[in-house]
Amino acid sequence: MDPLVFILDALVFVGVFMLLALSLNLEFGYTGLGNFGKVAFFMVGAYIYAIAIQFGLPFYLSLVLCALVASILGALVSLPALRLREDYLAITTIAFGEIVRIIFKAEQSIAGGVWGISIPSIFRDLNLSIRMSVVANLLLVYFVVIVVFIVLQLLTNSPYGRVLRAIREDDEAVSVLGKNVIYYKVQVFMIGSAVAGLSGGLYAQYLRFIEPNMFLPLVTFFVWIMLILGGSGNNKGALVGALLVEFISRGSRILKDYVALPVDAHNVQYIMFGVLIILIIMYRPDGLVREKPLKADWIERKITHGNS
Amino acid sequence: MAILEVNNVVKNFGGLKVLKGATLSVNKGTIVGFVGPNGSGKTTLLKIIFSLLDSDGGSIAFNGNDITGLSSHKIYRQGLSFAFQLPRLFLRMPVLDNLIIAARQQHGEGLLRSLFARRAWSNQEEMLADKVFQTLNFLELTHLAKNNTGELSGGQRKLVEIGRALMADPEMMLLDEPAAGVNPVLGKKIYQKLRILCEQGMTFLVVEHKLDMVLDFADWVYMIDHGKIMLAGPPRDVIESPDFYTTYVGEKNNASS
Amino acid sequence: MTEQIIINSLVTASLYLLAATGLTLTFGLSKFPNFAYAEFVTLGAFLGLFVLRNPDGNILFALPIAFVGVGLISVLSYSLVFKNLVARSTNLIYLMISSIALGYVIRHGIAEIWGWRTQSYQQVWTIYRFGDLRITTLWILMIAAALLTGIVLHLFLTRSRLGKAIRAIANNPDLASITGINKQKIIILTWFFGAGLAGMAGVFRAAATRVVPMLGWDILLPMFAVTILGGIGNFYGLILASLILGFAENFGVVYLLRAGLSTEYRMAIAFLILIILLIFRPKGLAGGK
Questions:
Q1: pLDDT for A113-147, tens place per residue?
Q2: b/e burial code for range C233-262 (CB count within 10 A of at least 16 → b)
Q3: Are A99 and C94 an interchain contact pair (Cβ–Cβ within 8 Å)?
Q4: Chain C within 8 Å of A79 (Cβ-Cβ)?
Q5: What is the ipTM of this complex?
């Protein structure tokens, strides 16, 4: 394989996972909501995209639809689930992910069932070379990543973000301060799900084929590894985590092709990630990039003013 | 004129009857002390008023509006605020943020406005900052403004908790032992501040163990025991009443046995 | 037909009871759901291979091997990982993530040793027929094992000092330190015996189906469903919940077929019951409002 294409291809996947890590960071990193069913919203995004494109909807509208449907689903799931304790929320969301997968698997009429569904590329009329086609996808994915990143940065560094961080620490105390906690949590779940849906749409567009087994609970677990490794509560950490985890896992796959290992690289990779995440949680729970306090220029001004 | 009316509130924990029909009312612009032995149901009633616990019967009205079972954030919006006995602060945030978050009607707390009305909310933040520093100056915490709340001592945290309730500019405050764990001089200063605010029209319902504070600052006192209001009246009358004495001495006997 | 479904339901219920006993007890004691229980079940299934890959191997030898082997791995994982995490007062979500991570380590460790290919026990189970009704020795063994576990645990939890202590701690963790019970000892014993039972469940599951590294994961969510349905840490609730879920699944499949739906939804029955339950009775069937 063309080495440049290989790297660019990896970067497209990194971008897709960056979106997932950013969305989990909003939910867990800032608001403390343990969503263990991230893959469900990713999957719904991918399938909605596939179905919308097959219906002949234009690309951008299909992508908007991914985000919209995923966020509506996020609201439907979160309204009852957010009243639960956090361990129950985890189990409910993981179960929800599996139900969604079973539905797509069992219902052939929706999108091919176990056989999967093919999606025409939006760049097919341009007659691009393989290399240029990957580049086109790269630009598309990172355009979305940058927009989402900026929006989330603004959101989490505002009084809105302050309320989210407070909810993470003590949601009852926040409601005593007059904030409608459920309202915030549902909003966060909707935004997070919308971003995951977008990510799914881009994933489907790039792969041009999806099937239910691409959306195992493993995907959710990987997003958690990215977030915890990178540093939860920091959007830059989420980006770093996505990059590192995707490249480590690619790297070990290359290693398998070039080095004769006595062990199965696939197994070793998961064992390594499992041990790694436990060690991080044990010894560096803040991750590589630590959370920063809110940026508030007025604090500096007031303090210098007060001292003078 | 009564601003808060608690009518026949009942609360059971499992088989244990903690409140057996507590009734009290608080007049506007007064400091009402709420006393009683440990486990008599004071904190429980305060939490029920603010919907932090569900009651098993009875009603609560604030400014004539029924607020029974309303969610906490709506009760806050009606003009009440609450300070926990054990501070419930956001320990990973600076002291400043802990205070500013309590202010009412912030533009930047809505999803869309936080994104698209940045100028409006940052101007507001600057105005709120003045208020935060006034509060901090009063509580003698200005030097800790930028510190993480987790670094503060127990007494300092208690002050931030009170400061937070003050930031809300409420019509009425529910305070659970505001001076507990704070040095006596500052404790007295807190009550003096409450007195000043009271003269400006604010109302207080204060759970307090220190009888000298109650005598000095309260306008009216309720004494609760075994889930029922046993005595009510001006502080001196209540505290000098023989029933008051038996209740507290009874508690001491129980404690030593 | 109905009699057959009842038998099948009892078999399913027995499996869930064995698999989830440890999950509910450790959830009650250590206050977090251990997702690695899926892999404890899988590990038991693979340990069973040592004995049961030979046609003349006896399942009565495989069961104790799986029990002890899985029990030891569970105790090891507690002392290496979870004891430290709890001591560092790690939050609940990170504890859950760590248990998922441990699950992946065990699952892929298993795959590394035994491979990903589908294997099966070389056993033939005698089938007894009563009219249309079919019962195999395996099923009888499963139901017997579940009954025995129920009786032994009941006696243990009500009669022995240690058993009473386990119930006390599961209900109120602070109580134990007051009454001077050695909490560490209790936790380690529970982690050992609970996981051991899950290992036995793995042998049964593998004997009834086949041996694959995903074996445990496939029944993890029903395991959580019975745990929560029965009330966390509540063994008697678990018995009832296992029966309910066993019957719901087996009768549910019949209705799925009648309704022309895929039997893939068999898994979804457990999830749906779980989700509906969590929304309407978050403290389990036995819990109050």
A1: 778 788 887 777 777 787 888 888 899 999 999 99
A2: bbbebbbbbbbbbbbbbbbbbeebeeeebb
A3: no
A4: no
A5: 0.86
